[in-house]
Amino acid sequence: MAAQGSALRGASLLITLQLASRLLTFLANQALLRFLDAPLLGFSARLEAYYLTVIFFARESLRVAIQRQPVRRTESESESESKTSSSGTGKGRSAAHDDDAVGEEGQAVVNLAYLSPVLGLLVAFPLAHLMRAAPSSTVSFNAALAHYALAAGLELLSEPFFALTQLRLRFGTRAASEALAAAARCAATLFSAWRAARGGVDVGVLPFAYGQVAYGAVLLVCYGVAGRGIAREEGFSVFPRVMGRYINKGAKGEKAEKQEAAGETYLLGYFYKPTLALAGSMMGQSVVKHFLTQGDTLLVSALSTPHAQGVYALVSNYGGLLARLLFQPVEESSRAHFSRLLASPTPPSAPPSAARDLRRLLRLYLVLSVPIAALAPPFAAPLLALVAGRAWSDDAASALAAYCAYIPLLALNGVLEAFVSSVATPAQVRRQSVYMGGFSAVFAAASYLALRVLPLEPAVGLVVANAVNMLCRIVWSGAFVRAYFAERGVESDVSALVPSGAAVGVCVAGRYFIARGPEILGGLGLGGGAFMEVLAMGAMALPVVALL
Q1: What is the pLDDT of residues 25-59, one digit of tens each?
Q2: Mind telling me which residue stretches traverse the membrane in this protein (predicted)?
Q3: Separation of alpha carbons 378 and 520, rounded Å
Q4: Which of 269, 303, 333 is the last residue of a domain?
């Protein structure tokens, strides 16, 4: 119980500090807007897509697999431990076996996590070559690309240490590391941009690259110190080691049996086969999922100009603020929670508890996101004019308004897919990959229609295409969750998630009155201006939010 309370406090601290670090990053990007035009922001979005692609392919499937399927001792070891504990030297040898089990688990996780930087190398260089070959008109794009590759390598080198902190539920360590790294990124980015502007030097997108390198370096140092401490306490190495050290301990007559079991359990003596197999089955899904996540950036690069890319990057930055600040940290924590709660063997009380937690989380997400979708669009134009300038407001207001309506779909999909990734078997993951491949085709078709056929602005068209894709994923994940709980005799009632008729009516009426805020302001002779428009609409929105 004490361990659960400590983990809960750590998770709460993690979410709080992640909120703060993401808010700090947003504020830094907001300050950088004064130094950027739309094409330059578009190129920075391409660099960000490169970085996220390398990181995602190198570590995502391994992270999920390690969380879902921790290392378990071989049958021969378990039998040996039970025999030892029943003998006269039970207590001493049982403690030794417990130490061996902890050491084996930690070393196996470290070995697996070192695959991430190797995979990162395999992805980073070919992808960088493809991006370098593309024509670029911005200053120092190739130099910035090299810095982003270095930053990805530094972050992936921290993965073994991160895996240890996650395995031992050191959420406080993770929160502090990510907060310090985010602060370093913001400081490096702003300082380099300020120095360049002061000296009249055009450095293009290099400030973003310097900030990303600082982030990776600080993350490696912080996680490295914490990981070495855990390894020293539990008696294993932070570098890859053959698992024979843990396997060959025990009675002499059992050595051959243990070595045979080790050959069946560890690939090449290093990598735990069940977790490796699960990660492999998730890799195909990860490729499709990443295309669906970053496909908007790739498509806008192929089908539109750098100016349109910059507009969409700005809209994603503002529109996705709630997702980055709140949804993503909660989804990561809920994935870890459901993975542990529903891990095999699952106690009878776990499925009802998981269903209740999932329902509460979905309800919370809808309560937060639906009012934003209904009431926020009228704020788009004056708010952009206030925080980013009138030029950005003219280009991006309609796209930001459309993105507000997209937020509830982001919220639902995020938590549903977090649950699916926590409980799906390898066969179910492969089935999901097939469906995700179909959804990617739907997304590509919707993008072509929205960008080339329908009379929509490029950024608005991309929001529409993403909404179509997100609806497909929500339907599949919702059907999976319903079937999962039905198999375990748990009723999954979704009626409580549907907004009431009164709430819908309040949102519709509130949207109308908020949109009339500037008109009422003009009728009172109080003048225009972006600030006054936001103030007037905010005053109109307060009673609506109170009613909701």
Answers
A1: 777 777 777 677 777 887 888 888 899 989 988 99
A2: 112-133, 209-231, 364-388, 400-421, 433-451, 463-485, 497-514, 520-547
A3: 14
A4: 269
